[in-house]
Amino acid sequence: MSKASIIGAYNTEFGAFVKKDKATGLVTDTKTYYDLLIEAGRGAIADACLEAKDIDAIYVGSCSPGSFINQEHVAPIAAEIDPALRFKPMTRCECACASSSVALYDAIYAVEAGRAKNVLVIGVEKMNLLPTPQMTHVLACSSHWPTEGSRGMSFPMLFAEYAKGYQAHYNIPTEEFERMLWTAGALCYKNGAENPLAHVKNGPASVEAIMALNELDAKGRCKNMMIAAPLRLHDCSLVTDGAAALVITQTANVSNRKRAVEIAGIGHSVERLPENVRPNMYELMGGKNAVAKAYKEAGITAADIDLAEVHDCFTINQIISTEALGLSADGRAGYDYLEGRFTRDDKVAINLSGGLKSKGHPVGATGASMHALIYKQIIGEAIGVKAKKADIGVAFNVGGSAVTNCVTVLRKL
User: Fold this and answer.
1) What SS3 state is found at 86?
2) Which residue, 127, 139, 376, 382, has fewest beta-carbon neighbours within 10 Å?
3) Which residue of the set 93, 361, 371, 406 is catalytic?
4) Spatial contact of 346 and 156, defined as CB atoms under 8 Å apart
5) DSSP codes, 7-50
């Protein structure tokens, strides 16, 4: 079976593309869902040095556009990228925050089956048109509604269960555990400060800077308030608008090997949706299963990896994702972060983009963005911090409360 390769990629700027009038409550859209999708698609086709007529199929990953922007049936929007795309097959994929990774996997299956030669994958989400309570409700619909969303369980609360389970299982003192979480978050803020596409470029880039925000100001306000113990505001990813896109083809079709990156292995493993039926709420069991599949297909081990983009929707998930990838032993990732590992100077660098914490987390676009930015690192066109070595990269994208687990090994040709 011929492998697929990425031959072009594009990432829009990430941010909150709205203007809000505090006096009237009026929200104005400054860069629409449609704008973002079209920009990313056009950018990826151009980056692949193709024309729109060369694209055989399009897969769009998007989590909740019907709720976020009142638009379902979003894949046909891709026809507006170029008139030559009219009548091409277009399909939307939804798997919560892993929607565009699953879109990529469906595209890979089409390419490997020989049904399509060149496939465009787009991930997109527009989240900031809604007020926070409504946005939180939309995201909660990606939890198990009967036992979680309908009972007021937000995603910070769901990942707080992993944080509490992890701390208890490994018997980590609270003060030490907090420093682990803040160290992981600060690393992403530091990297994101150099990413020109990042949502936040001036986040608190040290543990001390984060700790300073925990103190109450003169008016009794805390800039790093507790959201769902033990997770504070700066343990949580951002509400972001943005899009990213990829073009893939069979590796056998690649004409310019210098700008192609092979998709060496994928692992797609789905955990049970309700948290209350899962054992071991201190590790990503589905994630570890996906990692094993991806590594086996690629013929690698964790020791071969140069860089990784991991799904730090919450700082605890960054820690347990690091362990799931085998980059730290179980129960040791927090200590490894405290010891200064996973920086741009380490053997393996994590979240050089700034991760979801700093780059941003437009849920439907996150998976495509991870792949796009690793692709750019491997071909020597890094956006932001440049990896010390970039022959093999891994993207670990999670949907829901660690339910849909997508692990992709990307390798230099």
Assistant:
1) coil
2) 382
3) 361
4) no
5) EEEEEPPPB--EEE-TTT--EEESS-HHHHHHHHHHHHHHHTT-
pLDDT digits over 360-370, tens only? 999 999 999 99
- Residue 361 annotated to the active site: yes
DSSP 220-286: S-BTT-EEETTEEGGGB----BEEEEEEEEEGGG-S-GGG-EEEEEEEEEE--S-GGG-S-TTS-HH
pLDDT recorded at residue 217: 84
Closest CA to 104 of 39, 40, 60: 60
> Pairing between strand 57-61 and 118-125?
parallel
| Contact in structure between 359 and 199 (CB atoms under 8 Å) | yes
Best CA proximity match to 395, nearest among 319, 329, 335, 306: 306
Q: What pLDDT does 1 receive?
A: 67
Catalytic option among 63, 93, 95, 97: 97
Known catalytic residue at 49: no
Interatomic CA distance for residues 113 and 294, integer angstroms: 19
**pLDDT value at residue 166:** 98
Instruction: Give strand pairing partners of 314.
Output: 236
Tokens of 150: 């309908």
The secondary structure of residue 3, as a DSSP letter, is P
Residue 260, number of CB atoms within 10 A of its CB: 22
pTM, entire model: 0.98
Q: What is the pLDDT of residues 96-107, one digit of tens each?
A: 999 999 999 999
Which amino acid, 38? I
Q: Can you tell me the distance from the alpha carbon of 411 to that of 194, in angstroms, rounded to the nearest whole number?
A: 24
Question: What's the number of CA atoms in the CB half-sphere (13 Å) around residue 43?
Answer: 19
How far apart are the C-alpha atoms of 52 and 34, rounded to whole Å?
A: 18
Domains identified in the chain and CATH numbers:
4-132+240-246 (3.40.47.10)
Question: Are the C-beta atoms of residues 26 and 20 closer than 8 Å to each other?
Answer: yes
Mean pLDDT of all residues in the chain? Answer: 97
**Nearest-angstrom CA–CA distance, 55 and 57:** 6
- How far is residue 349's CA from residue 317's CA, in Å, rounded to a whole number? 16
Query: At a CB cut-off of 8 Å and minimum separation 6, what does 243 contact?
Result: 11, 12, 36, 37, 39, 40, 122, 123, 124, 125, 362, 365, 368
